[in-house]
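User: For my dataset I need records formatted as: sequence, then structure tokens, nothing else. Please produce one.
Assistant:
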Amino acid sequence: MEHDELEAFWVDARIRAKINRVSGYLGVSAKEVLRPPAWSFGGDPTQADELLSLVLAGTKTATSSARADYDADGEQVPEFGSLSIVLDGAGHPRALLRTTDVRVVRFDQVDAAHARAEGEADGSLEQWREAHAEFFEQQSHHRFDPEMLVVLENFEVLVAVPYTGEDALSPTSIG
């Protein structure tokens, strides 16, 4: 992904998501000028595209990550209202998300509602635990442990860039 492509997406997305609409009254806010972090779902390009397609279809409205990975990567845990740019498997920006809820719980305390909100496979808690135990074992900076802390994040899509035949980047407003 080129920096220019990401910056162009951010300039367009913040206008489409109406993030900058109150600056005339309140001045410029940090959300208006600081580009949010850009990342992709999953552990490889194929998984990134599969999970992103669930987000763009409205099926996936939540995600989870190992709490320890935030510390290892020197990143902050998302907070209510945090923005993020989601990339596809090729590294192109495809969506602007806003965090609507964040909880940190032990892996073995994740509930069925969160598993459903992740929108993957059959949506069951059993399937979520199986898939995420394997994912955390392979992708996390630390070994999987049923008592490990996980960050459960719910989000809404503010701007999405649908896939097209020519893969043109043409953002559309969702919310």
